[in-house]
Known about the structure:
By secondary structure, the chain is an all-alpha fold. It has helices spanning 2-10, 33-51, 58-65, 69-97, 99-116, 123-133, 139-150, 156-187, 192-198, 201-217, 226-235, 244-252, 255-265, 268-285, 290-302, 307-322, 324-345, 351-375, 391-400, 416-431, 460-463, and strands spanning 438-439, 443-444, 456-459, 465-468.
Amino acid sequence: MEGLIQNETKFSLRVDKDSKATEFRLFSTAPPHMRAFHLAWVSLFACFFSTFAIPPLIPVIRDNLNLTDSDIGNAGIASFCGSIISRLLMGPACDLFGPRLASSALSILTAPIVFATSLASSPRDFILLRFLIGFSIGNFVSNQYWMSSMFSGNVVGLANGFAAGWANVGSGATQLLMPLIYSYITSLGVASFTAWRVAFILPASLQLVTAWMVLYYGQDLPNGNCNHFRKVAEEDDASPKDSFLRILCLGLKNYRGWILALTYGFCFGVELTVDNIIAQYFYDRFNLKIQTAGAIAASFGLANFLARPIGGVISDEMGRRYGIRGRLWSLWVVQTMAGVLCVILGRVNSLSASFMVMCGFSLFVQAASGLTFGVVPFVSKRQASLSFIPILNLVSSIFLYNTDIMFFAGFTPFSKETGISVMGLMIIICTLPVTLLYFPQSGGMFCGPSMVNSQEDYCSLARGDAEEEQ
């Protein structure tokens, strides 16, 4: 009791026994919880801005570097390959060094590569740079890891939704701003092929500034940084000492992780795919100016400001009313609707209709990402005396290791319009496995729980079975 009183007086927000916040105040900057939230989304915003700064300028870059459609497609694939590798590595990095150091280090290491974009002189350089810049998106893992370390289960869906949603706005902001920056530079009399190179100073500088902010003002956990708690854990004989390899093997055997990985690949993975192709799609199909195509493409990414957080809000609200069943049903309905709208997007032929359908599609597919992370924290719920839980490494890595397979939809032998419709069908089909998710203590979409002991804590990814908390 004394510990709880001390916790309540120590923090500006109400907290649980692990010092995780049980409330979420969006416009507060109170340390450490809300300060971590704002640092996390701002830092990831800069990474999204850098990663997607290239697509809106593709019409100019392809003329300068003599890029073919194949080169552009390969560069996009390379970018996603880089992001997948970095996501896998970021999980262990967060465990070893904490999300603060892992996030800032990755941003600082990739910022010079963004600067180097201005030096590209061949298709090979272009593809290599896109691969390396894609690594910065690994900060998505540290973003969600950080939120799961700071916020309790009753608001973690909301925190994850806002942290990732506001960060993803960077992919829309860059679609809007990079063409404007390019146009402004050319208006000063700078040659077109030089102007697009100069424009990359902004995203690289933004990434460096936010990285240093995270490093100096951030804190890994409510009660301190990970290095301190790691030392405590090593001295505490009661602390879990499972090796990462053992936890990984047990986690890979769990079908829930694979289903959610697939589901996430067809919401967030699709979103990243569209971010890469949408400006060029509107530019080529409707013969628009580069600024107009960029503005239309920007509206897709900017919808994250509300769409993904709304997904988190819906998940938490449905969870309060109907438990895990409500979270799963809302995820399935919203993501299926995203698939339907994606099919329609590839079929409509007018600019106005395409824009309206795209806006609806963006709202649903981004809300689905927030809904997915409303389910994620409940897959592994091991309670520990420390907020530093190594199992989060596995959770983050598996769920963020989406294959981004739908990226290839824009670069198949089909036309881009047909590819987009096929992508929509795949979203619908690959969302169906959500109906198979079942948690013994919480139930599933169609069945109630099989465990009635409220003291039991389902630790599927940690141990592969349920364990009773003492």
